[in-house]
From TrEMBL:
SUPFAM superfamilies the record matches: Nucleic acid-binding proteins
Replication protein A 70 kDa DNA-binding subunit B/D first OB fold domain location: 54-115
Organism: Oryza rufipogon
First and last residue of the signal peptide: none
InterPro entries named in the record: NA-bd_OB-fold, RFA1B/D_OB_1st
Protein name: Replication protein A 70 kDa DNA-binding subunit B/D first OB fold domain-containing protein
Length: 306
């Protein structure tokens, strides 16, 4: 009986089924809203679960935009290198008509909010050789839109994490990596190539006393001209982003997009405090290793040139 009116059993069952269906639908809608990616996702959060949906939102700065060209399958394509608010980098790929659209729209150095983007595992895209070592790449599809965020957007200049030296030693030739270490050796400035480009080699060491060489070029060199000797004397923490792996010369090399940072205020830099204190007390602990590494490197380069 409803409101004093008798109701047939079949009608009660029918009403109950409708109410249950509506409740279930409402619950499904609420669950969908709560689980939808309405917040901005960061690159380090991307997992295999993210590849099943193409509705993610990211806030990134475009730090490198490739040329519009045909890919292996004859489709137009453009490749981007992006950096998120925490300094994590990832490559993005745009195909077909969207490639022309975003090629005209996007500007290097600008920050954008991208809506409805997808992610694919890099190992599934066999026809491309990625510059950034990452398990995933971002895909801009026909549903992807973008806008410029309002107001100032704070983005970390120094990446929040770095690859291990062992991973850098194994990185593919011409790939791009970020590196951090203490400055333990600075070579005099030399001039290279037909254009007399200025360059110098610096040696970095990590807490495991592994040594890696970074060749600094042109503007990254001259902008910090007065810092190098002081950095060597005080074992400054040094960060170089987007350096190119040169397997032939056994070194990293700064690029036009590289950023040089001395003594960054970050957790990664703080991990070097103990090592710096030890080197200030007894610098000879690492000096012999540096000299041996330089001798091996010079011998390797001499044999390669002859």
């Amino acid at each position: 009986m409803e409101n004093g009116v008798a109701v047939q059993p079949w009608r009660s069952l029918f009403l109950h089924s409708i109410v249950s269906s509506i409740d279930g639908l409402c619950n499904a809608i609420i669950l969908c809203i709560l689980s939808s990616p309405c917040r901005i996702v960061r690159f380090h959060e991307i997992q295999m679960d993210h590849i099943h949906w193409k509705w993610w939102i990211v806030r990134v700065r475009v730090i490198k935009k490739g040329h519009l060209q045909e890919n292996y399958y004859g489709d137009l394509q453009i490749r981007l290198i992006l950096i998120d608010e925490l300094g994590t980098k990832m490559e993005a790929i745009v195909y077909r008509r969207q490639a022309e659209h975003f090629n005209q729209l996007l500007r290097c150095g600008s920050v954008y909010d991208f809506y409805n983007v997808g992610f694919d595992p890099t190992e599934m895209i066999v026809h491309l050789r990625f510059k950034i070592r990452s398990h995933f790449c971002m895909i801009l599809n026909s549903a992807t839109t973008t806008r410029t965020p309002h107001g100032h957007v704070h983005m970390l200049r120094c990446p929040w994490r770095f690859p291990e030296y062992d991973d850098i030693f194994l990185a593919r030739h011409n790939s791009l990596v970020d590196v951090i270490g203490l400055v333990v050796h600075v070579v005099d400035i030399e001039f290279r190539s037909l254009y007399l480009r200025r360059t110098r080699i610096i040696a970095l060491v990590n807490p495991r006393l592994q040594i890696i060489f970074v060749r600094v070029w042109d503007q990254q060199l001259t902008r910090n001209l007065t810092r190098w000797r002081s950095a060597r004397t005080h074992f400054d923490c040094f960060v170089a982003t987007l350096t190119r792996v040169d397997r032939r010369a056994d070194e990293l090399s700064t690029t036009y997009e590289s950023d040089i940072i001395f003594n960054p205020d970050s957790a990664s830099a703080n991990e070097f405090n103990v090592l710096r204190q030890a080197l200030e007390v007894s610098p000879s602990n690492v000096q012999e290793q540096v000299e041996e590494s330089i001798a091996r490197r010079n011998l390797h380069n001499y044999q390669r040139q002859n």
